[in-house]
Amino acid sequence: MGVVAGLREDIAAARRRDPAARTAFEVAVLYPGLHAIWAHRVWHALWRRRLRFLARAGSQISRWLTGIEIHPGARIGRRFFIDHGMGVVIGETAEIGDDVMLYHGVTLGGRTRDSGKRHPTLEDGVAVGAGAKILGPVTIGARTVIGANAVVTKDSPADSVLVGVPAKPRPRGSEEHMRALLAAPEYSI
To answer: How confident is the model at residue 58, as a pLDDT?
Structure first.
């Protein structure tokens, strides 16, 4: 996929997920979540070419400008969207699948100082509510919804709802819409 096609796909994903988004121009110019993702792609390319200091310096500039910290080593899939992204932190070994959405204050962090895989893996279609913390080398199954302020430290199967501290999974009903789950008061703390 070309650069311009990728940018268009990201803008379309943001418009699809944010009911407040009015025009593609508005999204492209005013959404810091998109700016952080676009910058990350540049810094990640430098990271993969072993230009580590330059990649880290660039990611810090992006953090200062957007309030979103994405380590250049993190691997991020297509159509990733960060809504109201202030305070989002994504660690070095985090892996994010396609069609994932994060709200503000989400942390994909580590729990150890050991080298190797120490940050979460979010499979395709995961949605993470505001303030949630997903810690350690856990895997969150596809199409899972994580409620606001949940603290996740264990793997989760696909099609789950995770809420609480520590978060406990339950199967997600086929009638439960992802946006409704993220906004429901019983799924926040």
So the answer is: 97
